[in-house]
Design brief:
The chain is mostly helical and 176 residues long. It has two domains: 93 residues; 80 residues. The chain contains two helices and two strands; from the N terminus they run ββαα. A two-stranded antiparallel sheet has the order 1-2. A hairpin with a 2-residue loop joins β1 and β2. The protein is rod-shaped. 0% of the residues are buried.
Length: 176
């Protein structure tokens, strides 16, 4: 069956199939146009809401940046005052002359290090002399002690000699 053979009856009116097809295609085109326009306006509404939200965000950011710029300007002024004070302090303390003083201190430090090496050598020598002195003191004490024994021996020998002389005197002069 062909489209031209088709007939539609509505309220006593008869419509041929070709006309029905044209009307349906025309109606679907209009419906598609209406749907597309509706979608377009819906997107426009969404864009309008996004632009409004972006405007609010932009004004909030602008206010924050304004506060930040003011704070930054105040901070920079504070830094400038601090730097100025530091420069004045450096000038007052003669930091420029510090290089010469550091060189002099370096030279003095080198001299101190050399003197310290000499002192360490002297300390070792003094320790050796103290050890030798202690040994000598022990030897002298031993000799003095042995001399004390010699004194006793000499006294004993002297007594024996005196006794021998007395014995000789008694032999030579028995009455005497």
């Amino acid at each position: 069956m062909a489209l031209s053979d088709l007939e539609l009856n509505l309220g006593g009116q008869s419509f041929k199939g070709a006309y029905v097809a044209v009307v349906i295609s025309f109606a679907s085109t209009i419906a598609g146009g209406i749907w597309t326009a509706s979608e377009f306006f819906s997107r426009l509404d969404a864009q309008e809401a996004a632009v409004a939200a972006a405007g609010v965000t932009a004004s909030t950011l602008e206010a924050r940046f304004a506060d930040l710029r003011e704070n930054q300007a105040e901070t920079l002024q504070g830094y400038q005052v601090t730097i100025s004070n530091m420069q004045q302090s450096l000038d007052d303390n003669d930091i420029k002359g510090l290089q010469g003083k550091l060189a002099e201190l370096g030279t003095n430090l080198e001299a101190i290090m050399e003197a310290q090496k000499d002192l360490l050598d002297l300390r070792d020598r003094v320790a050796a002399v103290e050890k030798s002195n202690a040994e000598s003191v022990l030897k002298v004490e031993n000799k003095v002690e042995s001399l004390g024994n010699t004194d006793e021996r000499l006294m004993r020998i002297k007594k024996e000699i005196d006794d021998l002389w007395d014995a000789l005197d008694s032999v030579v002069n028995p009455l005497g």
